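Predict the assembly for these four chains.
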Amino acid sequence: MEMNRRPHAISGEQNGLRADPARQQELLSLTRELGTELSVRPFRRSECCDGYFASGAFGWVLAGIVRKTHIFENGQRRIVDVMMAGDFFGLDPDDASTFSFDAAADGTVVAKITSQKLEALAASRPSLCLFMVESACRTISRLERHILVQGCTTSTKKVRGYLQSMARRLPRDRTPVKLPLSRYDIADHVGIAVETVSRAITELQRRGVIELEGPRGLSMRCSYELAKGLPGEP
Amino acid sequence: MEMNRRPHAISGEQNGLRADPARQQELLSLTRELGTELSVRPFRRSECCDGYFASGAFGWVLAGIVRKTHIFENGQRRIVDVMMAGDFFGLDPDDASTFSFDAAADGTVVAKITSQKLEALAASRPSLCLFMVESACRTISRLERHILVQGCTTSTKKVRGYLQSMARRLPRDRTPVKLPLSRYDIADHVGIAVETVSRAITELQRRGVIELEGPRGLSMRCSYELAKGLPGEP
DNA sequence: CGCGGTTTTGAATTCAATCAATGACAGTGG
DNA sequence: CCACTGTCATTGATTGAATTCAAAACCGCG
């Protein structure tokens, strides 16, 4: 699976994506409350955030989408995480050298706080501590579930699992859901070739597992068999 | 890759494994300091820890190895995380229903703290907050690097990446390093068949990338080509 | 020593990557 | 307005790799 012949350009002009309304609210009020203690910054689509995340810090996505990617020496790209509104953000000191970040949507907004400020705040606001740890755990959970998806036996299962978890994370007030990422992104996230992603999607459609409205409009046909979902069946 | 025809029994009697001596020290003193505020519990090899982790809580591994696994409906197993001494531990509320935990070595010791106690402690000990968050971020980093490994193009690269990260995490005071997990475990962690793991290891040995002393004794031959390591090259 | 589990190897099949090409769509400039 | 261009998406044919089925070699242990 050589994947470096792709254009790496971004389509899809998503903005205002929300993962979990309740959590989103909590985050916003927290962000307001912390005020000057943290820094908030907007990004345009395709804009690189590396500089902003240079120093070890913690943060969260307020709106839009942030991709965390690794570029191999031969130019291949792998997406290790896709963060949407409400998702936590922690930087290991040496992450800066191996990973890079960029916004995948216009109107992406990120908040961050330095270690020092966090420690200072922890004294006055003990609940902030718990909030941060819980957010981190949510991220851990998301990553582990992705590992489950990526470890699936066939490519069709991988794609199905990916679409399923995406559909879960996106606001589902209106069907179909609008996929925020391109096939190239999906391929790089799950570790298969673009063509395989496309074939898998066609296959899922043929089997009636999903329904497409244009390349980006997705409806999961949650039959009983699927309700058990993934995780639950490989 | 059907993987449920394996015996699921554990060999390898590892104990006293340490990941990062400095961090290990920090953890131990923290654990002592917190005293009765947290609970510490030993596990035998192959012992299930599900009950202990039932309620949403945070914790860390003091010694030994803990596997976090998911069993699919058809009996297939997938290992989503392997935690060694010093590794953090956070439970999403609904993790309990989808994942299960068990010790992979005798003498495994785990510490945990409840959300309430954590919040109470955060007020009196602000540094604890930062410590927890940083620990969580380290776990996030580990998982993301695993996703990188698991997303590699060929099975040989997956196995090489896995062995490399394992070798890094294990105490390397003496060579060869003793691999804590079986080929079955490696297969279930990386998402390939056992036979493929075996073939990949043989291939790596033939190419001089690694050296084996018995099935469990591993030395990485870190040639220049390899020094760039993974992440760095797919 | 023989037994259960692990590790390795072999041969046949299935599946995904690759190479190559076409179709769909948006934005651009004549 | 329409051809032009670049990216994204899909499909087909072929090659290469991993899974599967089967069986042998190995190891620790009672």
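Chain B touches chain A through 55 residues (CB under 8 Å). The mean pLDDT of chain B is 83.
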